[in-house]
């Protein structure tokens, strides 16, 4: 995810008492000096993506602190004066009214904007004042380059690194950017360029030699499932001893680990402290874990807290939908309306925060809901069905939730070709080749028939059982499509059928797993310049894993499966029976599997469109006392760089 930036401007307060709102100037095209150079935000309708800030739901904060929302941005627009302006409304909370009074009294006169950079140009000014575009970069390309040049704090405010060397700072014009919040800020940190900057949010100007870090306890989280950790630095008057630095590192890790404990494994924090992991590396680990947490659909669309998830009752929502009386299901209806507002359309029945229904539950059948009628039912000993494992999250596949329209993910498929020429020979024209992958909604639908008697008589929480069953069931189904979808309507195009991935030729009638197979799929990626990184790993099923534990790398050598966190060829191995083991290869019928390798699994993107729409039909099955519940969910999958993946079909597993 792109690194968020912030800058401040005079608030330009203008009250509209009749509406209870006020207008404010949020940003301008004034040059702003950062460590990497001069930054200029282009303010045109085509340059500023206002899809978030103008949706009427994004916050007005105090000092960029997400725990201190003092209002909401009702709408935003680009003014004729080339300034981003907005109409905001203060909260009626005590803090909101306090800040409102300070703004009206002209005590607080600055506002700061948080934004993502999507595209930018490096420009060079000639002596006559004209500008020449040196190059164009995406936000991600720019962030990678600046991080390599200036470190993780490349975007901090203050004199640029070039000035320390006596050079002229480079100038970058941001030609595409997206604001996501505005904040009232109390004190300008930098007035040397004629515009206020927010202190305490962006870091102060730094000396040439970086100072020791001081970790603040309140990092700002921009949007689920992404994290933004803001770090401040200060000059140290005395040099710290190694022991003091180690204590500072440990304390910082413990503070961050405690705040984001829900995203960490049981040993992540202890391992980071024991293995000497830096604070920045630990933040990267947390970011990676947050980005990969896509199977927990309880918080994806509505933002329910864990407490609200427990409060939500599917049973109340079902009964209310059947009877038409939502008096006792106000919270459930509120959740549906919240999703409806986000999606901009009404549900056919009601929107459900958790996901898909998969099974029929009828009291009359003992193996279905009949076992839920209270006699001496041992609720504490209920166990779920055995399912294929979900592994996309641990591999690092990215998830984009809450999409409403088709999404294009552009990429450069081949770079420009540079050739040789004689001293006065003509250069050959060359152009980079670009491509894109489009995510569009693919409909997944299912229905379940629940008897009215089951809803009335269930001794245990029927809605909790159904929810747990179907949240997992939906994720398993999506991952099956991610791997095996053929791309033929209505299926999405899965890994195995994506054009451009590396393919290692399979034996005519299949062949047993060997050491060569593991190396060949890894090499297929590396040979396409997709060198493995921290997100590299294999994707296999349990049958391939079983074979790997029995097959040696060679005579008198260890087995293919080494165990530990990198059990195959020194890489991670995710195991799921969503990787088919019933594939036919030549005369080997329904006994073959696919071996897959990804050099960077974050190049895979799962798009979730909207929220599941649940329709409760009490009429179709009225004669049998059943309620038919139908669900529609839309999702898609794509690879940003197919060459980062490779496969070999026809691995014999018998």
Care to describe what's here?
The chain has 654 residues and is an alpha+beta fold. Among the domains are: 1-205; 505-602 and 641-652, hypothetical protein PF0899 domain (hypothetical protein PF0899 fold), CATH 3.30.2320.10. It contains 14 helices and 27 strands. The strands form five sheets. Strands 1, 2, 3, 4, 5, 6, 7, 8, 9, 10 and 11 form an eleven-stranded mixed sheet that branches. Strands 19, 20, 21, 22, 23, 24 and 27 form a seven-stranded mixed sheet that branches. Strands 14, 15, 18, 25 and 26 form a five-stranded mixed sheet that branches. The longest helix has 23 residues, at 462-484. The protein is globular and about 80 Å long. 36% of the residues are buried.
Structure described in brief:
The protein has 654 residues and is α+β, with helices and mostly antiparallel strands.
